[in-house]
Structure formats: C-alpha cells, structure tokens
Design goal:
This protein is an alpha+beta fold. The protein has nine helices and 18 strands. It is 28% helix and 26% strand. The strands form three sheets. The chain has an eight-stranded mixed beta sheet, sandwiched between helices. It has a seven-stranded mixed beta sheet with strand order 1-6-5-15-16-3-2, covered by helices on one side. Helix 3 crosses helix 9 (310-320) and helix 5 (160-168) crosses helix 8. It starts with a strand and ends with a helix. Mean pLDDT is 85; it is low at 1-20.
C-alpha cells in the first residue's frame, strides 16, 4: 500500500466532511473536477450523443482509499470485490466486509446497466429526428412520460424514472472561474462535434461524471464505505457550422437536502401510477440532492469494479437480481 501524504493535486487542500451515510462532501469545490479527463467529455460530443443524450450519463470511475484514523492509503483496486448479501452491498478487502449504503431499488438495475457497458441512463433529446430516435433505441432507451423523456430500459421499474428525471434537473453550483475556463478550453480543443444527420433543435446540457474526481473510502473504524465526488453539468450550444461548443460548466451542489437517502417506501405512489401520462417533474420532487449524488457515485463504483473483475461483478449482479 502506498501512503498518500494528503492525496495529490486537487485533493491537497481538501477537508472532507462525512455525513451519517455513504456520501461525503468536500469543502473545496475545486476538488471535484479533473481537467485531464477532458477527452471523455469530448467523446460524448464527437459521437453526437450529447444531441440525443441531453441528460444523465454514467461515465465516471473511482479510486479507492483505506482510511485508518488520520492516515489514508491508496488501495490496489484489484484486491477489492463486491458482495451482495441479505439485501446489502459490501466491499470486501483483505477479509474485511465494508458496508455500502445505496438505494436498494437501484442495485439490480444499475448492475445490469453496468454489465451492458452502457453510459446514457436518461435523456430529453434535443435532436428529435428519426435517426436520433433510432440511435436512442439502439442505446437501450425507451420513451416515457409527457416530457419527451427517454430512459434506459433497466430503470423502468419501481420509481427509478422519477429519480433519473430529478438527476437531470439537480441543483448545480458554479466552479471557480479559472477551473471552469480550463475545463471548457480542454474539452473544446478536442471536439469537432459535426455529426452527420443529427441536428439539435435547441442548445442544452449534459450531466456526466466523466471528468469528476470520485474517491471511495473504506473507513476502517466503522467498516463503512463512503464516497466523495459529484458530477458536472456541461452546457453547450450548436454553432452555425453545426459544431458544438461547451459554453459553461458547473458542478452538482453539495447542499444535499438531507443526511439520509430517500426511502422508496415513503414515496407518494399516487403521483407515479402511469409512466405514459405521469408528470415526471412533480413526482421527482420527492427525492433530494443526496439521492442524485449517491446514484452517480454508485454508478462510478460499479463501473470501476466491473472493469477490474467482470466475473466477480457478474456474480454480484446475479445475487442482487434474484
């Protein structure tokens, strides 16, 4: 294990605050973004997915740290395994089980989504052409509700469509000017954004953790898993030559609205009867910012561990979906 004197670069000046759940916040907003990952956002734009996927992209990964009192050690991710047991998610490290608190209703659908190696979970597409519709279908999304929404097929059950809708419209906060400018410049210099057949009907934004610093902590004292990091929102416009330009970048707010994840059993089901006619906006107000941040963190955790050990992840998914 390698000792981290207090992390590197963006983490050097961070003081993390842990809530009574698996979501950590940081007092330094500049710690949330990694400009060196600009190529991942550029891929979304250069593929044209931003024009049909103006919504929720699960595209992040996480690093792992063992927290032992005041000491923090970077972990070899390949020594970690996921386990699902008695309705709970655990990370196993050197014989110790660390409990991870996430929405129980999200575990199975998100694991299937991850196994499919999908990225786009929710969208209100700004391209409404037949080609755009075909591409969304090919990406595993289906149309729902009265808002022009498309949702990945794995998330149609329970009340997950309303969670995803809320994630698309989650609260954001500005980045420091110098960091925001650096991110925009890094992304824009890598993009051409000219995609044949796809034309945006309006300028929009993409929520994605592609450039987010997400860190998963295994807390030895409590044997709990806590995750820090939030997605970013990339506002873009279509230029007269059909190219795309990122014009502003913000981060999901860390004012989480609650110290606990929303219990799905507490939701008002009368607002959520029929996906074909339901008002997603009204129904989604039952969730809090903490739910949106946690879902992104869970997706990054799953994506990383699937890439590291696909066999273990498949076994985890089978157990979770029984």
């Amino acid at each position: 294990m390698k000792y981290l004197p207090f992390f590197t670069y963006l983490f050097m000046f961070c003081i993390f605050a842990s809530l009574a759940n698996a979501v950590r916040t940081t007092t330094t907003i500049s710690a949330v973004a990694n400009p060196q990952s600009a190529h991942k956002v550029a891929r979304i734009i250069n593929s044209g997915e931003h024009r049909i996927g103006g919504g929720v992209f699960f595209d992040g990964t996480t690093t792992f740290v063992l927290e032992d009192g005041d000491s923090k050690f970077r972990l070899n991710s390949r020594e970690l395994q996921l386990e699902y047991s008695s309705g709970s998610v655990f990370l196993l490290y050197k014989g110790v089980r660390y409990n991870y608190d996430m929405h129980a209703e999200l575990v199975c659908p998100l694991s299937k989504f991850t196994l499919r190696e999908a990225n786009l979970a929710y969208s209100i597409p700004s391209d409404r052409s037949d080609l755009g519709t075909e591409l969304l279908s090919n990406m595993g999304l289906v149309p729902v509700g009265r808002t022009g929404s498309w949702i990945a097929r794995e998330f149609l059950e329970n009340e997950l469509p309303f969670l995803l809708f809320g994630m698309d419209f989650a609260e954001v906060t500005p980045l420091p000017d110098h960091l925001e400018l650096q991110i925009r410049n890094e992304v824009n210099k890598l993009t051409d954004g000219v995609i044949g057949g796809l034309t945006a009907e309006w300028d929009s934004y993409v929520n994605t953790d592609s450039m987010s610093n997400i860190t998963t902590y295994l807390v030895r004292s409590s044997t709990e898993v806590e995750i820090a990091g939030v997605p970013l929102r990339f506002y873009w416009r279509q230029l007269s030559d059909q190219k795309t330009q990122v014009v502003r970048v913000e981060a999901y707010s860390q004012k989480l609205g609650s110290t606990k994840l929303t219990e799905f059993s507490s939701l008002d089901k009368t607002l959520m009867q029929d996906l074909s006619t339901v008002n997603l906006l009204v129904a989604s107000t039952q969730f809090n910012q903490i739910d949106y941040v946690s879902a992104y963190q869970s997706a990054a955790l799953f994506k990383t561990l699937h890439a590291l050990d696909s066999s273990n992840f498949l076994e985890f998914s089978v157990d979770a979906c029984q």
